[in-house]
């Protein structure tokens, strides 16, 4: 197996084209999206792919469960008594509903913190940072800092002890020194990472495997409370509900979607070149059918919700995963 420029195992062989997602209007193609996808095991081996497994992109919000590992590992989650609901909101890109804001507030309350200490933005038309889709992650960040006696005001700086611990944990999972990870500022103000697609899939292979206590707690919480991870009618929530606790799903902005088969140590990562959300959802369902991770009934219900945005519109996927 070839080594990428970063030293991460992956394939450099050509000949497996990306997937193509087409939007059809009354059966006539109107738009096209190119999509890369990869399946990895816990050893980082690329098992199946479409397109380039070494495609670089920012992982965006698909990083949240791994950012939350420090919340669990530090003892902060146990100290604030947040339970599985608090762990789920720490991993969430939520809808900003009253239920979501309340869970983020409860996490802060358990750590004796105030909503005003959150540094995620106040969404337009809203009154509190608790309504921001990343408020649970930020609340977990602050609770961890309180537990570890780290500075609260600078918790989003990449050189802060909290963020350095996140980089260390991700590096351990990828088998890389933390210093080699490339960071950038996410829209909520927190650091995110530029990773190869195969590296994202490896992270999710670890998340669903059930072999590491911190990740197992977080994955169990996400599956138990999918409504907190995204929200009613949103892709990650509906997929995990219909997956009967067998499939983890977490998306990120700009066409990132990651999946994991619970208990099997397999992870999937998807990147849409033009950042389209509709295309990543279409590809996720296409791959879940190919991998046989969902029942036909669940797949059909998800297709009706996410592949047919209007009676005259339909999304279709051309191509498939192939053995590397």
Any overview of this molecule?
The protein is of the alpha+beta class. The chain has a single domain (19-323), classed as 3-Layer(aba) Sandwich (Beta-lactamase), CATH 3.40.710. 39% of the residues lie in helices and 20% in strands. The strands form two sheets. Strands 1, 2, 3, 7, 8, 9, 10 and 11 form an eight-stranded antiparallel sheet that branches. It has a three-stranded antiparallel sheet with strand order 4-6-5. It is globular and about 55 Å long. 51% of the residues are buried.
Keywords:
alpha+beta; 324 residues; Beta-lactamase; 20% strand; 8-stranded antiparallel beta sheet; 3-stranded antiparallel beta sheet
What is the CATH topology classification name?
Beta-lactamase
Order of helices and strands: EEEEHHHHHHHEEHHHHEEEHHEE
- Any idea of the CATH class? Alpha Beta
Total individual domains: 1
Summarize the structure in short:
With 324 residues, the protein is of the alpha+beta class. The chain contains 13 helices and eleven strands.
């Amino acid at each position: 197996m070839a080594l990428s420029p970063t030293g991460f195992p992956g394939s450099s062989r050509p000949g497996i084209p990306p997937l193509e997602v087409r939007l059809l209007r009354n059966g006539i193609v109107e738009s096209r999206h190119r999509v890369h996808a990869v399946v990895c095991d816990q050893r980082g081996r690329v098992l199946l792919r479409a397109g380039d497994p070494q495609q670089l992109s920012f992982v965006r919000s698909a990083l949240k469960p791994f950012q939350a590992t420090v919340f669990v590992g530090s003892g902060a989650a146990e100290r604030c008594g947040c339970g599985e609901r608090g762990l789920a909101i720490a991993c969430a890109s939520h809808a900003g509903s009253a239920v979501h804001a309340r869970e983020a507030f409860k996490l802060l309350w358990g750590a004796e913190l105030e909503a005003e200490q959150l540094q995620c933005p106040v969404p337009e038309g809203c009154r509190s940072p608790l309504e921001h889709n990343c408020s649970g992650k930020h609340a977990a960040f602050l609770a961890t800092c309180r537990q570890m006696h780290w500075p609260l005001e600078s918790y989003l700086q990449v050189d802060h002890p909290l963020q350095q611990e996140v980089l260390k944990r991700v590096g351990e999972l990828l088998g890389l020194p933390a210093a080699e990870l490339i960071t950038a500022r996410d829209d909520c103000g927190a650091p995110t990472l530029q990773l190869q697609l195969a590296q994202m899939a490896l992270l999710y292979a670890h998340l669903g495997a059930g072999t590491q206590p911190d990740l197992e707690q977080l994955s169990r919480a996400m599956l138990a409370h999918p409504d907190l991870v995204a929200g009613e009618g949103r892709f990650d929530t509906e997929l995990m509900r219909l997956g009967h606790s067998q499939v983890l799903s977490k998306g990120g902005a700009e066409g990132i979607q990651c999946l994991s088969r619970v208990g099997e140590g397999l992870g999937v990562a998807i990147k849409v070149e033009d950042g389209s959300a509709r295309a990543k959802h279409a590809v996720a369902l296409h791959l879940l059918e190919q991998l046989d991770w969902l029942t036909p009934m669940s797949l059909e219900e998800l297709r009706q919700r996410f592949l047919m945005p209007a009676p005259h519109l339909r999304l279709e996927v051309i191509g498939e995963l192939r053995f590397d």
